[in-house]
Amino acid sequence: MNILKFFTAGSVDDGKSTLIGRLLYDTDSILADQLEAIQNANRKNDDGTVDLAILTDGLRAEREQGITIDVAYKYFQTAQRKFIIADTPGHIQYTRNMVTGASTANLAIILVDARNGVVEQTIRHSYLVSLLGIKHVVVAVNKMDMVDYSETVFDAIAQKYRSLAQELRLEDVTYIPVSALKGDNIVHKSERMAWYNGDSLLHFLEKVDTHVQEKSEKARLPVQWVIRPQTDELHDYRGYAGRVVSGTFRVNDKITVLPSGASSTISKIEFFDKELAEASSGQSVTIHLATDVDISRGDTIVNSSALPQESKLIEADLCWMDTKALDTSITYLLQHNSKVTKVKIADVVYKVDINTLEKHAADEFKLNDIGRVVLKTADALALDLYQENKANGSAILIDSRTNLTVGATMFRALAD
Amino acid sequence: MESFASVPKHNSPLLEGCPKGGVFERYQPNPNKNKPDSSEKFVRLSLSKAKLETDSGTKATEEQLTLLFKLKKDITKKMSRYNFDYLDELEAEAIHILREVAGQFEKPALLFSGGKDSITLVRLAEKAFRPGKFPFPLVHIDTGHNFEETIDYRDKMVARLGERLIVGSVQQSIDEGKVVEQKGKNASRNALQTVTLLDTIEQHQFDACIGGARRDEEKARAKERIFSVRDEFGQWDPKRQRPELWNIYNGKIHKGENVRVFPISNWTELDVWNYIRRENIELPSIYFAHDREVITRNGQLMAASPFVNMDEEDVVERKKVRFRTVGDISCTAAIESEAFLIDDIIAEISQSKISERGARMDDKVSEAAMEDRKKGGYF
After folding, report:
1. A–B CB contacts, 8 A cutoff, strictly below
2. Do residues A236 and A324 share a domain?
3. CB–CB of A100 and B244 under 8 A?
């Protein structure tokens, strides 16, 4: 059994939280006391039925306003799979929260209101999915009950979305007509849409294969911590602890340590009380080298036959996440895996109007703005491009005055 | 290598006649890690072996034990070459987070409550840092109203690990007049421990506190970051949380602030139990079904203990119960249960219709009870 992480994108009235509530409810993932709490809550649907959206709106302010403000994570499982849902707000003022929820997702569900079809926010959400490189997309055409479960309406929306998907280079898109409110095609196939031959949403989520090369083959391990017991019997023990972010390391592999460029050979891969022959993407392990090399936190161990690029000038997509606008005159911190270095925004190349996808020249970057910039770092980064290797191609920006995370960056090209 | 002892010392029919620390306990199988369901055959093999010994009343020979041990090892080895399954993924993520704490903070601490979640954290810390020492001490906020079994467990565990334990005492906070003991029938020290926790953090200047909270526990927790920044007063501001992207955790803070870190945020209750089973982790015995004197309070079973204020209306009954969470004795309700073994518990939870925190009186106060406590500095 493996885990599928997905996020849902939809605007305030698309019934996104209702859809998640429905998934949980129909898979029996809501327990009696939680259900009782919802039933006792004041918020109800117009027809007096339980408002499933309350399940995900965890904060007082959200329940008061009936909207989702922050990302909520929800968990459920079926016999086939475990699911982690990032329930993200859809409103433009919460774009940063959506980017946050989307950053760890393997799949995106984009909700479209059957009555309204593809609208501005559909374009915005789809753009974010494409920007963050999420490979699998489900377009859930919701509120089919409000359009008499019409095949014609559904087809027209799918048709319209296909051209958008093409423009955004979204390759794997699946269209499902649903009614989250009534439960059609969420967990169970709906009898009210006999014309639809595909899977219910849940069935699709259970079977979608996310193993199709989401990650790069190039072996990378950012060193987080050096294990040195310094006891009598383990006097010479020196293990480099970290998580393999991409590729596979094997014992006897020739490796290079960056930024120093020193090379060595892997003598041993340890995981607690086990010795492993190899360690692949996702595994947290401890690596031993055949020779003494100076390595500390922030360094990256890579396979010598597939070196990353090294640069201090990087073209990157930036999503600005702070209420204080980007200031190109000051120095920020950039955190790339375990490495932190100083950075300046050397140039703002363009800004994207995320509702129309048009690019504009711009001087300022405010909350929720997205666009292309040139980063100038103090230390050279051992990086891959985001489109080739998400984990080694992404970083966050930190404002050292406030310590807040102010930006998400995705490396797109070397600028020097 | 860990000992395999992980079975409760209670009156399971399966254990009848089996000496404490006997063969069965030591060789409870580590259900093969990747497919817990397919391990059934192996469990049966071992169970029947235990029974055989019980029936004949003799100990298994060294040869038989070696064979069983080897078989278990072979299965585990074979499995570990296969896919990286969900428990491996959750484990690797948690280890990554723990190592980030070690790398990013000057004075971190691991908050240890004696509950299954913090026990799981300790195992994860072993996996992250052994053969080195933990780069942090364990901190226990002791309400003074603990289950005895929890304290025994804590002390044995600390001795085994050889790590440092710091105890923050709620009793001391009361004695010093920093907090006032609640009165009345439903009095509990649960709320008071926040003050002791904040004082302990301040006294030791901890800049990061690792805790075992999970997002599936409660809806306010579902919103919390893995690195959750608290201000000088320990407060959580849900509206001003830092965006947390990819697997990059921003631990930068100002002096006086601290970060609460939740490495098992993405685990569910069932995941924790499946992990405990897979890793053969020993637990305090109160998690397993046992006979106990209880009273019924607001529809919940509470331990009849000197720490729970009782009056003549309370009827003390003896029931077979276990605890799903372990907190202060005065606010943790028991459930009636026949679950003596981890497998029984997993089966019980899988079928349960009541959430784990359904047995916590502290969450029953209002819909935003947890959010309000977290804003005030609670975990």
Report:
1. 178
2. no
3. yes
Do the Cβ atoms of A56 and B126 come within 8 Å?
Answer: no
Which residues are CB-neighbours of B37 under 8 A, at least 6 positions away?
Answer: none
Residue B317 structural domain: 285-363
* A259 cis-preceded (ω within 30 degrees of 0): yes
Kindly state whether residues B118 and B183 are assigned to the same domain: yes
The answer to whether residues B293 and B226 belong to one domain is no
Q: ipTM, 2 decimals? A: 0.92
B168 and B303 co-located in one domain:
no
A254 located within any domain: yes
Residue B26 resides in a domain: yes
In a domain, B1, yes or no: no
- In a shared domain, residues B50 and B122: no
Residue A415 pLDDT more than 90? no
Distance CA A17, CA A9 (A): 10
Banded pLDDT at A12 (limits 50, 70, 90): low
Residue B238: per-residue pLDDT: 79
Q: What are the C-alpha distances in Å from A246 to residues A215, A217, A219, B196?
A: 6, 6, 5, 43
Domain count of chain A?
A: 3
Q: Into how many domains does chain B fold?
A: 3
The closest alpha carbon to A56, from A77, A81, A82, A25, belongs to A25
Asked if residue B229 belongs to a domain, the reply is yes
Domain extent for A404: 309-414
End-to-end CA distance of chain A: 45
> In the numeric block, which tokens belong to residue B352?
């349960």
Stretch 34-93 of chain B: residues touching chain A, C-beta under 8 Å: 35, 80, 83-86, 88-93
Q: Which of A8, A10, A34, A32 is nearest to A20 (CA)?
A: A8
The answer to the question of residue A213 being in a domain is no
Mean pLDDT (whole number) for A51-58 = 62
A351 phi and psi angles, rounded to 5 deg: -120, 145
B354/A73 Cβ within 8 A: no
Convert the pLDDT of each residue in B257-270 to its tens digit: 999 999 999 999 88
SS (H, E, C) chain B: CCCCCCCCCCCCHHHCCCCCCCHHHHCCCCCCCCCHHHHHHHHHHHHHHHHHHHHHCCCCCHHHHHHHHHHHHHHHHHHHCCCCCHHHHHHHHHHHHHHHHHHHCCCEEEECCCCHHHHHHHHHHHHHHCCCCCCCCEEEEECCCCCHHHHHHHHHHHHHHCCCEEEEEHHHHHHCCCCCCCCCCCCCCCCCHHHHHHHHHHHHCCCEEECCCCHHHCCCHHHCCCEEEECCCCCCCHHHCCCCCCCCCCCCCCCCCEEEECCCCCCCHHHHHHHHHHHCCCCCHHHCCEEEEEEEECCEEEECCCCCCCCCCCCCEEEEEEECCCCCCCCEEEEECCCCCHHHHHHHHHHCCCCHHHHEHHHCCCCCHHHHHHHCCCC
Please tell me whether residues A335 and A298 are part of one structural domain. no
Q: What is the CA radius of gyration of chain A?
A: 24
Q: What is the CATH number of the domain that holds B185?
A: 3.40.50.620
Tell me whether strands B300-303 and B290-297 are parallel, antiparallel or unpaired.
Answer: antiparallel
Q: In sequence order, which residues have a C-beta less than 8 Å from that of residue B39 and are 6 or more positions away?
A: B29, B31, B32, B75
Q: Which of residues 253-272 of B touch A (CB under 8 A)?
A: 253-254, 265-266, 268, 270-271
Asked if the Cβ–Cβ distance from B371 to A60 is below 8 Å, we say: yes
- The secondary element (H helix, E strand) that includes residue A207 is helix A201-207
